[in-house]
Specification:
With 345 residues, this protein is an alpha+beta fold. It is 41% helix and 15% strand. Among the domains are: 1-87, Orthogonal Bundle (Rna Polymerase Sigma Factor, Chain: A); 212-343, Roll (Nuclear Transport Factor 2, Chain: A), CATH 3.10.450.50.
Length: 345
């Protein structure tokens, strides 16, 4: 849709409702782009809102030399770059140092700010034959963590070229760069991300097939948690498995250390029946919303577990201990005492 249809010469700019109708076909993919840039959906929503506000205010300067979609990407991409250059980058605990011992795990803290998961359904983006990364790979937690080390402009180039499949010339025009500068930035970004993803290999897994073997492994994971069975949980883990639990800064590696820590924190005597897991998907991987039963018998949402599977074992669990984050996946705030009926609003 050409904005000039809505803004004839001498006419006032479109209303906010008219502008929203114009950008509606592109809002979803622009939000997904902002999420990849920022590493968190809350930040993505803020960046998209600011970018679209700038686009609305600047609509009079749009001359339709490019499509509306391209022009919106120009405004939103540059908004992301300008805003993210002033912000602290998001990380996972794996970025902060070596694995800890179970006895060294400390209470959660608000800093640093963490990479946050997103539902698969929110992250679809149009791709071209030139795209180097598929949709799942481009929202994997390891990829998102890796690209956060890039300067925002390099991050933008990498996403536009390797995820969306835009040409170097298109990127150059979009970001006010020369084509050689785009190619140089892309090369540096690819090298940096490849090195970071190698360091994050424990949480960088291809999605498992949806077959009986995978479904059985996931069912056993649920049973281990709901039965608070530390032995059954340990049996699911690969020997060198990794557990991270943002906002806890420490992370654990190794079946025995993880089982000891989870046993102490969640699988204590008398806890059987206190936990419920509800399946979902996050960042291209199987995931579960975790609930904990209170004294009133009602289960309250507590966390979201994102799993990385390796054959018959769990290679990594990234457990985001944040009820509000879990609720962004559409989770009910509470479950009734039987664990099946939604409670609350």
């Amino acid at each position: 849709m050409d904005p000039r249809e809505h803004t004839p010469a001498g006419a006032p700019p479109p209303s906010s409702a008219q502008f929203e109708a114009m950008v509606a076909p592109y809002r979803r993919e622009l939000r997904a782009y902002c999420y990849r840039m920022a590493g968190a959906m809350g930040d993505a929503d803020d960046l998209l809102q600011e970018g679209l506000l700038r686009a609305w205010r600047g609509l009079a300067g749009y001359e339709a030399r490019a499509s509306l979609r391209t022009w919106l990407y120009r405004v939103v991409a540059n908004t992301c770059i300008n805003e993210l250059e002033r912000r602290q980058r998001r990380v996972l605990p794996l970025d902060l140092g070596p694995a800890a011992r179970p006895q060294d795990v400390m209470p959660p803290r608000g800093e640093p700010i963490w990479i946050e998961p997103a539902a698969d359904a929110e992250q679809d983006v149009p791709r071209t034959p030139e795209s180097q990364l598929d949709a799942r790979e481009s929202i994997a937690l390891a990829f998102l963590t890796a690209i956060q080390v890039l300067p925002p402009r390099q991050r933008a180039v990498l996403l536009l070229r390797d995820v969306l499949g835009w040409s170097a010339a298109q990127c150059a025009e979009l970001l006010a760069m020369s084509v050689p500068a785009v190619n140089s930035a892309l090369q540096r970004a690819r090298e940096t991300v490849a090195a970071r993803r190698e360091a994050l290999a424990s949480i960088d897994r291809a999605p498992p097939p949806d077959d009986l073997r995978t479904r059985d492994l996931l069912a056993r994971y649920v049973r281990a948690w709901e039965d608070t069975d530390a032995g059954a949980f340990a049996a699911l883990l690969r020997e060198d498995a990794v557990l991270t639990m943002p906002p806890m800064s420490e992370w654990l590696q190794g079946r025995d250390d993880i089982a000891a820590a989870v046993g102490g924190m969640a699988f204590h005597p008398g806890a059987r029946g206190n936990l419920r897991l509800v399946p979902t998907r996050a960042n291209g991987q199987p995931a579960f919303i975790g609930y904990e039963r209170g004294e009133d018998g009602v289960y309250t949402v507590r966390a979201i577990h994102v799993l990385q599977l390796d054959g018959d074992h769990v290679a990594a669990v990234v457990a985001f201990v944040d009820p509000q984050m879990a609720m962004r996946f559409g989770a009910a705030p509470t479950l009734a005492a039987d664990g099946d009926q939604p409670g609350g609003t």
